[in-house]
Amino acid sequence: MALKGNMLIGQSGGPTVVINQSLVGAILEAKKHKQIKNIYGALHGMSGILAEDFIDLRKEKTSDLEAIALTPASALGSARKKPTPDECTKVFEILRKHDIRYFFYIGGNDSAESANIINETAKKVGYELHCFHIPKTIDNDLRENDHTPGFASAAKFVACASMGDNLDSRALPGVKVNVIMGRHAGFLTAASALARVYPDDGPHLIYLPERAFSMDKFVADVERIYKKLGRCIIAVSEGIADESGVAIATKFSKEVDSHGNVQLSGTGALGDSLAQEIKARTKITRVRADTFGYLQRSFPGVYSENDMKEARTVGKLAVQFAVKKYNDGSVAIRRKAGKKYDVFFERIELKLVAKETRHVPDNFINKEGNDVTKAFIEYAKPIVGPLPVIGRFKGVKVKAKKK
Amino acid sequence: MALKGNMLIGQSGGPTVVINQSLVGAILEAKKHKQIKNIYGALHGMSGILAEDFIDLRKEKTSDLEAIALTPASALGSARKKPTPDECTKVFEILRKHDIRYFFYIGGNDSAESANIINETAKKVGYELHCFHIPKTIDNDLRENDHTPGFASAAKFVACASMGDNLDSRALPGVKVNVIMGRHAGFLTAASALARVYPDDGPHLIYLPERAFSMDKFVADVERIYKKLGRCIIAVSEGIADESGVAIATKFSKEVDSHGNVQLSGTGALGDSLAQEIKARTKITRVRADTFGYLQRSFPGVYSENDMKEARTVGKLAVQFAVKKYNDGSVAIRRKAGKKYDVFFERIELKLVAKETRHVPDNFINKEGNDVTKAFIEYAKPIVGPLPVIGRFKGVKVKAKKK
Questions:
Q1: pLDDT, tens digit, for every residue of A7-38?
Q2: Interface test mutation site (partner B, options A172, A200, A287, max chain B beta carbons within 10 A)
Q3: What is the pLDDT of residues B287-335, one digit of tens each?
Q4: Its pTM surpasses 0.80
Q5: Which phi and psi angles does A34 have, rounded to 5°?
Q6: In CATH, which of 3.40.50.460, 3.40.50.720, 3.40.50.300, 3.90.1210.10 is domain A151-301+359-384?
Q7: Which ipTM value was assigned to this complex?
Q8: Which among A290, A390, A398 has the least Cβ separation from residue B300?
């Protein structure tokens, strides 16, 4: 039987709509195991650990926990902080002082890296720590996973927003640029393709960071579609970059976080500049841009049922794995073969999800680099689940009258 | 009994999530009356009428109509076009040719004005036309109405988006500017206040076009809140203007439509410039801006139940009024006195809703001009209806350990 001790859990990186499902899944599972004594939550991830800023999660009522599970964005607060070697030493003092033997960190690849650093340090000093990463990211860019908790709900938001925008643009035609989150991985932007119901539905063009972005080709693509349909909706990843790998948005923003990432979200600059280019280089007059922004990862009430369930499961399983079987690791979501959508979960090595990310595979991107393929739709559709029904008039024309 | 003849219906102005309820309400009601022979829909409002571009709405299946009723954005297409005197003459030739005796135009004050122009011309030439305006606008700025169809659903979207954004900002604190639709009337921006559940919830500052916007006061307000809470969420109308009435956004956009309106939506410029001002004038580093954009009026699946019902009713009643009792008018929503939310509907004169708009009344805005009052919340809450439940940890702190 594993060591008795206290548990500490934290949330890290960009919030999602289902990240609290993982948190609540872990808490409720932890309560079932005698090895786990106190259950603490670190406020604001690594920052809260370093500041010894913990709350007692055994003091929370189950009904409140269930409400929190349905509430978007990290209920414990988040942080974008990677511990330095000095800070790692400090983290240890704190874990030791509180007899933390079970440590869970919910987040993306940066968070897995932080967990991995702490885990390796624990091994080095011979401190028995059961250390698990719990996957979360709307970017869907964790390696080893078929998809990651948080992605499906954000994808549903993007698909619904794109559906609505397509309808709006049918009503009042023009060119519309929609900027979607995704720094290096275009999965979320690709999900805009799920909005298509009728053959002329947008988005008509989709640009991912996995393909070099050429402004000339972009403007030519837009003109071609506009000529054909009288309107054009474009979905573009915030992270699109030119042939040298320079993000188009970096021309307009210089802010950098502690992971070295430039600010791409929370500004409309990329969308506006793309719209300006279209206006300047074509004769199209009605050109608009929206940046879907933080709504993509935080909008309450718009979520994928699968995502909610899977997020809960990875939290629960991380605790089970840590208590019953493994000293460390992450929980990966794998898809079962077969036509009906189903998944299974596996414990994997921490280092396999840390740091590096995965990208949209080649077979999900069309040859021209301005759309996704049917293979992507088949991949993403069952993950996201049902979308709103979109009605349309058959539209039998009335003959014009001479007199 | 009123004259037998054909019916024409069109949609105009910015789409909403429930505008098709009014359309379907009118179509299904029209089918019940023998006076109405053919039921035509004009594609893209006034433009479709002038182009004689009609579809036969009797050819649509009821099940399709019901799907369309739940689908956002003008299913017939929209337009932002006021007929010129010459065009009015042309409209008449077309109405006469098709023996249109029942004309319905779904839209805001500009659309009511177009309907009024056509109606007055009909009277002048002695052509019997039953002409009704059916109210619609997310701006909630139609006179004579307690509120307008489309507002409650857009308000729900804004409230939900603000709830999510508040949670996101609690997780990763900073300053956040959210730009919300509303050119001259701040009702929709004010609706962001419905997002507040806990005492420290945002938005912490709300700026409406009804009050002169001062950049100095704005920055000082933001600094004060940030100092107190460590974060600050601001809701700001796209139409905020300085003391001379010059829209702050006009510095960044010059595009004008045929009603003389400057482009405020479909660009992130206003939010970005406000964020820049905060960054430049304070020491706050994490400052972000989102422009909720077209999603506010087109997002499928996020709607107010009341709004859906009321939008259906105004469409239905316009037809009843036109067939049974009146030659012209608009349908107004009035609120019944009493604690429980309830409404009734009245036929009013067309000119009463045309052209001029109403604004957020003084008692809905706080003295400092940076928030709404309790009176606004009491007004808006029942219109919008239930919002998502937001859970939060009680958060009992764990004592720091000495060793």
A1: 999 999 999 999 999 999 999 999 999 999 99
A2: A172
A3: 999 999 999 999 999 999 999 999 999 999 999 999 998 999 999 999 9
A4: yes
A5: -65, -25
A6: 3.40.50.460
A7: 0.95
A8: A390
